[in-house]
Design a protein that fits this description.
Elements: H1 2-22, H2 48-64, H3 69-78, H4 88-95, H5 111-127, H6 129-144, H7 153-169, H8 175-178, H9 183-199, H10 205-212
Length: about 220
């Protein structure tokens, strides 16, 4: 009797496996993520710097795009990445793996999750290319004239929103956050992030940004 049940269970398992193989809707890794190579990490988890950098780039995008996290979720849906980032809570959890955050998740960020976030942020950066390029041009023009970045309305608005986002979400007691305790240091960080966003909009920009996130982290 036991042998018959075991045989029956085996047949059911095989049948289910065949159905999953033949079912195109079965869960699988989104194809778009295959364009990013897997870094040679022993544990398959993202280092601290990688997690922080991804979150900061998304923070810069939120300071540029007033729809904030909603835009991120819309792009996740459009790029068929809802299997990785299905909702706002999941997005918050992934971004909270940034050790600089006030509420920091103890879990790490998997390579698959990091790829999804990078694909999304690069897609949003491309949509904002004109805005990013203009802000950077304005910043350098003001710098040459020895004027303050706040002398331009649009650049000042971006910097103000970025500072507000950073201070409301990052833990001021973290050593990495203390380095940005002044408006000037946060302004510089915000401008540096604009440069990285513009970098990822060029030819093979997404792949180059992805590789740069692991510089010095892999052998």
């Amino acid at each position: 009797m036991i042998a018959r049940r075991s045989s029956s269970t085996a047949r059911v398992s095989v049948s289910v496996s065949v159905m999953q193989l033949n079912n195109p809707s079965a869960p699988s890794t989104p194809i778009i993520l295959d364009s990013l190579p897997d870094p040679p990490l022993l544990d398959g988890l993202c280092p601290r710097r990688t997690r922080s950098q991804i979150d900061l780039l998304l923070l810069a995008i939120e300071a540029l795009d007033l729809t904030g996290s909603e835009a991120i979720l819309i792009v996740a849906r459009d790029l068929e990445l809802k299997s990785v980032i299905p909702d706002r809570v999941t997005l918050w959890r992934l971004r909270s793996t940034n050790p600089m955050r006030r509420t920091n998740q103890r879990r790490s960020l998997s390579i698959l999750e990091a790829k999804a976030l990078v694909v999304i942020l690069c897609n949003l950066a491309r949509r904002l290319t004109v805005v990013v390029r203009q802000l950077l041009l304005t910043y350098h023009q003001l710098l040459e004239k020895e004027k303050s970045p706040t002398d331009d309305f649009y650049l000042a608005a971006y910097l103000e929103r970025f500072r507000a986002h950073f201070r409301s979400r990052m833990n001021p007691r973290r050593a990495a956050v203390l380095a940005y305790s002044t408006d000037e240091s946060l302004n510089q960080l915000a401008v540096d992030l604009l440069g990285q966003l513009l970098f990822c909009t060029g030819t093979s920009g997404m792949q180059r940004l992805w590789i740069s996130l692991f510089d010095g982290e892999v052998a």
